[in-house]
From TrEMBL:
<comment type="similarity">
    <text>Belongs to the YciI family.</text>
</comment>
<dbReference type="Pfam" id="PF03795">
    <property type="entry name" value="YCII"/>
</dbReference>
<dbReference type="InterPro" id="IPR011008">
    <property type="entry name" value="Dimeric_a/b-barrel"/>
</dbReference>
<feature type="domain" description="YCII-related">
    <location>
        <begin position="20"/>
        <end position="107"/>
    </location>
</feature>
<dbReference type="InterPro" id="IPR005545">
    <property type="entry name" value="YCII"/>
</dbReference>
<protein>
    <submittedName>
        <fullName>Uncharacterized conserved protein</fullName>
    </submittedName>
</protein>
Length: 128
């Protein structure tokens, strides 16, 4: 269902640069990315996010481990937010990201703002 109400979508940057790409081509693509995202923010289609450091920890019921792991091909390198009327429109916006051409991929996830409050009783099966 497509609505006219803007929604926010989390964008997770995944992957690694194409190993065949030269350092100069990667740098040019990064420069192109900054121009692209500045334009998207100015047009109200995106909100800024951040790059993520390569170091981190994973916390689970099994304890705390080092991570993310360097051997993972799908490392999350950063996040942003897209403002669009539908997930399809958000995906279309992201197709313009110049870094896709050199191997990066982007996962888009709708934000469930109505269920985001820690002060509202809810559960993961959609009840409450």
């Amino acid at each position: 269902m497509v609505t006219n109400t803007p929604n926010e979508y989390l964008v997770l940057s995944r992957g690694q640069w194409d190993p065949e790409a030269s350092k100069e081509r990667i740098q040019q693509t990064i420069d192109d990315f900054y121009l692209w995202i500045e334009a998207m923010v100015a047009e109200g289609k995106m909100k800024t996010g951040q790059r993520l450091a390569h170091t981190g920890k994973t916390v689970s019921r099994h304890g705390i481990t080092d991570g993310p792991f360097g051997e993972t091909k799908e490392i999350i390198g950063g996040y942003w937010f897209v403002v669009a009327s539908s997930l399809e429109e958000a995906a279309e916006y992201m197709q313009g990201n110049p870094t896709i051409q050199l191997g990066l991929a982007f996962e888009l996830r709708p934000l469930e703002l109505e269920r985001a409050s820690a002060y509202r009783a809810s559960n993961e099966n959609g009840e409450g």
